[in-house]
Specification:
Length: about 240
Amino acid sequence: MALKHNIHQPTALITGGSNGIGSAIANKLLKNRINVAVADVLPPSSNDVFFNKCDVTKAKEIDDLFEELAQNFSLPDILVLNAGRGIREKLTEGDPSKWEAILNTNLMGSLRCIRAFVPAMLKKKRGHVIFISSVAANQPHPYGGIYSASKTALEVVAETLRLETLPHIKISIIAPGITDTSFFDNEISGDISINDLGPDPLSPQDIAEDVWYILNKPGHAVINKLITRPANQSF
């Protein structure tokens, strides 16, 4: 896509940025004069982002994404690791091949992006990596073991990355509660919908505002984790 970046503005790369929370983050950053690149398996609705079709479960596609950004746009100053999928299965009855697919997306996909893009940030001695986690992290619950495990591991990776990149790279985790997206419709396995989870979920824009708030923390202070739930959510 022949979309040029503004060299006077920072660049953000958002995985899974074509819909839901990722799309809301992309729109928020665009409105605030940040170059935005989206990596997703589906194209975004906005023509103002640099889009590269990319499945984060495939190492070669991550490598191709890096080359495409390096040659035709800009390597990211901000990396938003948002791509993820859900699953609801009982551990004694579920399908291990589906569990592997979840871990490959939610955990390994983020690790592949870290390995590809954070070294360039370290070379510049600046950058910000934002992990989109979940309130399900560190919260065992029936039928949610695999998803919770993937997000728990992701948060351990985030904290490890913070320690390994001190003091140059800022690391933040956002853990949303129930959010009104197509997440539940796109679960690999599960028979629950957003309507089953109670009234007044968060909107994707709520999480986009969290991203913007984190990015604008002044000085050397960093918000390392932010949890946002609907006021009526107990989990």
